[in-house]
Design a protein that fits this description.
The complex is a heterodimer.
Chain A (H helix, E strand, L loop, with lengths): L2 E12 L2 E13 L4 E5 L6 H8 L7 E6 L2 E2 L5 H11 E4 L11 H11 L7 H10 L15 H13 L5 E5 L7 H16 L3 E6 L9 E6 L2 E4 L1
Parallel strand pairs in A: 3-8, 3-9, 6-7, 7-8
Antiparallel strand pairs in A: 1-2, 1-4, 4-5, 9-10
Helix pairs in contact in A: 3-4, 3-5
Chain B lengths: L7 H10 L2 H38 L4 E5 L3 H10 L7 E2 L2 H6 L4 E11 L11 E5 L22 E4 L10 E4 L2 E8 L10 E5 H10 L7 H4 L2 E2 L1 E6 L5 H16 L1 E5 H44 L1 H10 L3 H31 L3 H8 L8 H22 L1 H7 L4 H7 L2
Parallel strand pairs in B: 4-8, 5-7
Antiparallel strand pairs in B: 1-10, 1-11, 2-9, 3-4, 3-10, 5-8, 6-7
Classes of the chains: A alpha/beta, B alpha+beta.
């Protein structure tokens, strides 16, 4: 099993009162698997995904990635683990505006301890995702779909075992959303596991669908 | 395209390039501080050395000049402003016998109208090589051997030793060149009293024969006995001869202390201004970095998500701050070099104080010190931001930055 989540919980405080964003949630994902986490805004999807990525510390529960408890690692080790094993596509615009599309894709490669160049690989990925023409463009000059595809290419750069994407089609038109969904399928077919949070039914046609509401899983 | 790794330095440069106005504004502030610090220090040190040289070598305790010519004498000595004035020469013997006077030596100040050597007027100073102690300290001892028709020139007079200098149509052989004094001597021409008198006749500056002309001098330099206060010696001379000879006195100690006060004021002004600008640069940069940190929360969170450690982000901010700090410092140094060095003569003339140029090595040392002090303002100002960034949580910060 690639990912095992056991009884994960996270509370937030609002107006002086605690409320559970993620409540005693467990799931597992096999290598090359595809899970769509479906739920409304505020259902706890993003909090859950951010804990899976090691960006947010849970109040209780355990996340085991390939047998490794990721919160047993210190911050630096967890950061390098994320760089090495995980591709993460955050919600909304997530490209660095001071770098070209190509440099955005290359960047994660150089944040770890890898040696050698990243140019050939980044260009190959961009070509695969239909981005060859925009490699020199800066994010403000890209369309929403292009930005999302660049973010996806960036997430693929270090050949991760799992890609987590938070609302990857939330602000895209239906045609572009469909293209992005097809890309996920294509990449999943190449062996990369996916865990998506969405309220887009088009995306939920792919893989296993889990519904989440008030931080709890409703169905499988 | 050449392959380059994304180090904090590379990303910092990309970030600065994409924010040119902010980067240039901050670097400009550091440049201004560096300019004042470096330029001010160089000017100040030049003046200090000039004053030290003057204090160390000015052999005279008192100068006797014609009444009303105290300022002209100072201007001639300190700035080389050409001037001509007269005093009856027979006063010299009377002064030599006065109580407290150890040595007395005459000078004759004559302003040239033009000279083949120079684009401007020069001060011609006639002196008595036998009794002189006013000029000798700057001359490496080569004035005593001056022969008829020979001159010694100040360090900034163009003809070299062995060449000829024409004054009022009369040619003189340049026998020696003085060391730089930082004073008016640098633009003066020195010759024996006899040669000055002869020049006045040949150049048509005075009528009559030599015996009438050499009855005049311009000033008398006095060295007083350690047992007497120069002011008391001066007062006694004034009491005895002021009415007959229409005298005025220049106390060289006062001359130096006046310059010293001016220099201290200038120096204080430079240091206060430099300190103010450094503080201003630090405060402005700290505020800008801190504000930028808030604006860039999402950017930093994204970097953390992609795998940048807290240390990597800290290094990124330090690099940005260092590029601004040291870039601005280099700009300030270049600006100071471009403005101060080519125009130093004009600047020192307008300040009107004795000055001596620093050696290239000393200027380099001051430049390096200013570069380090100014450049360090950038990283120092970013320390709070660096510490802050090592503490923030990624996900909440990402949400706040949305």
């Amino acid at each position: 099993m690639l990912l095992e989540v056991t009884r994960l919980s996270k509370k937030y405080t609002r107006g002086g009162r605690d409320f559970p964003a993620v409540d005693n949630l467990s799931l597992s994902l096999e290598r090359g698997g595809f899970i769509c986490l479906l739920g409304r805004s505020g259902s706890g999807k993003s909090t859950f995904l951010n804990m899976l990525a090691g960006l947010l510390t849970p109040d209780a529960g355990k996340i085991s990635f390939d047998g490794l408890d990721i919160f047993s690692l210190d911050d630096r080790a967890r950061t390098l683990w994320r760089n090495d094993k995980l591709g993460y596509v955050p919600q909304g615009a997530s490209l660095l505006s001071n770098l070209s599309a190509l440099d955005n894709v290359r960047l994660p490669y150089h944040l770890g301890s890898r040696k050698g160049g990243s140019l050939k690989k980044a260009r190959g990925l961009m070509s695969d995702l239909g981005l060859a023409k925009v490699e020199k463009s800066y994010p403000p000059a890209l369309s929403g779909g292009e930005m999302r595809r660049v973010a996806l290419a960036r997430a693929m750069m270090n050949e991760p075992e799992l890609i987590i994407a938070d609302e990857p089609t939330s602000d895209l038109d239906s045609e572009t959303a469909r293209e992005i969904a097809e890309l996920f399928t294509l990449l999943n077919d190449r062996g990369c596991a996916f865990l998506l949070a969405t309220h887009d039914l088009e995306l939920s046609r792919h893989g296993r669908v889990l519904k989440i509401s008030d931080g709890r899983l409703l169905s499988d | 395209m050449t392959e380059r790794a994304f180090t904090p330095g590379v990303l910092a440069r990309a970030n600065l390039r994409r924010r040119p106005f902010r980067s240039a504004g901050l670097a400009g502030l550091v440049a201004l501080f560096t300019f004042v610090l470096f330029g001010g220090t160089i000017l100040n040190e030049n003046l200090s050395r000039g004053l030290d040289s003057l204090a160390g070598r000015l052999g005279a305790d008192l100068l006797i000049v014609p009444y009303g010519y105290e300022k002209e004498t100072q201007a001639a000595l300190l700035r080389g402003e050409p001037s001509t004035f007269y005093l009856k020469a027979d006063l010299l013997d009377k002064v030599r016998g006065a109580p407290g006077v150890v040595q007395a030596s005459p000078q004759f100040f004559l302003a040239s109208l033009n000279a083949s050597c120079c684009t401007a007027q020069v001060q011609i100073i006639g002196y008595d090589p036998e009794s002189d102690f006013l000029i000798r300290p700057w001359t490496r001892g080569n004035l005593a051997a001056l022969e008829k028709g020979q001159v010694v020139v100040g360090s900034r007079i163009i003809p070299a030793v062995g060449e000829e200098l024409t004054l009022f149509g009369v040619g003189f052989a340049v026998a020696a060149k003085m060391e730089a004094t930082g004073m008016g001597f640098d633009t003066s021409v020195f010759m024996s009293l006899d040669d000055v008198y002869e020049l006045m006749v040949k150049g048509g500056l005075a009528e009559g024969d030599l015996s009438q002309i050499n009855a005049f001098i311009s000033s008398i330099a006095l060295k007083t006995s350690p047992d007497f206060a120069p002011r008391d010696v001066g007062n006694e001379l004034m009491r005895r001869h002021a009415l007959d000879y229409n005298l005025d006195l220049v106390l060289t100690k006062n001359l130096l202390s006046d310059i010293s006060v001016s220099l201290k004021n200038f120096s204080s002004f430079i240091w206060v201004l430099a300190a103010f600008l450094w503080l201003l640069a630090m405060i402005v940069m700290s505020v800008v970095f801190s504000v930028a940190l808030n604006e860039r929360q999402r950017e930093f969170s994204l970097l953390r998500i992609l795998g940048a450690t807290r240390g990597w982000l800290g290094r990124l901010i330090l690099h940005e701050a260092s590029y601004i700090g040291f870039g601005g410092a280099a700009l300030g140094l270049a600006g100071a070099a471009v403005i101060i060095f080519p125009f130093s003569t004009l600047i020192f003339q307008s300040i009107g104080l004795p000055h001596l140029r620093l050696s290239g090595l000393t200027v380099l040392a001051y430049g390096l010190a200013a570069f380090i002090l100014a450049g360090a303002a950038g990283p120092l100002a970013s320390l709070y931001s660096v510490l802050s960034i090592t503490r923030f949580d990624i996900y909440p910060t990402l949400r706040e930055g949305e």
